[in-house]
Amino acid sequence: MDERRLVKVSKYLSRHLRHSPGRIGVELDAQGWVPVGTLLEAAAAHGFPITRDELERVVAENDKRRYEIAGERIRASQGHSVPVDLALPPAAPPPYLYHGTVARNVAAIRAEGLRAMSRHDVHLSPDRETAARVGARRGTPVILSVDAGAMRAAGHEFRVSANGVWLVAHVPPGFIRFPG
């Protein structure tokens, strides 16, 4: 499978495992899982056949580890806009986490903090480099530091997804360090 096909399959999986499973007639269980066979059959029936080998390669080689397979089930690791409960246990975050954004969002973040928007949680990165890559998807990145240790001490609950993304319901502005 060439790189372009790898990206196409990954985007297809993202669309249907995170945002619109019903579009191809797939139903996620409460934790976001779907049987691999069901997904492959639905994809083929809707004009986008994926082989089991292609699926496993995308799961194994995706640089962001967006998907996980457990036995004969697959799910997206995080980032859902459809109702799911990933059943991730609370976890103690490192003292600081990072969020990549762009300059046009900074004023709203200063006023309201980081909000989940159309997703279930705010996504935070364990390092500046990852946050920079995330922010760069929409322009020149602005990296925000989040005092996760202080947030946890104040009672905010953190969870970490299978691909290392830290999740929290909201980050109030007082816990964010802005550049400059």
From TrEMBL:
InterPro entries: Ptrans_KptA/Tpt1, RNA_2'-PTrans_C, RNA_2'-PTrans_KptA, RNA_2'-PTrans_N. It is an enzyme of class 2 (transferase). GO terms for biological process: tRNA splicing, via endonucleolytic cleavage and ligation. Its EC number is 2.7.1.-. GO terms for molecular function: NAD+ poly-ADP-ribosyltransferase activity; tRNA 2'-phosphotransferase activity. Keywords: NAD, Transferase. Removes the 2'-phosphate from RNA via an intermediate in which the phosphate is ADP-ribosylated by NAD followed by a presumed transesterification to release the RNA and generate ADP-ribose 1''-2''-cyclic phosphate (APPR>P). May function as an ADP-ribosylase. NCBIfam families: PRK00819.1-4 (NF002014). Belongs to the KptA/TPT1 family. This is Probable RNA 2'-phosphotransferase.
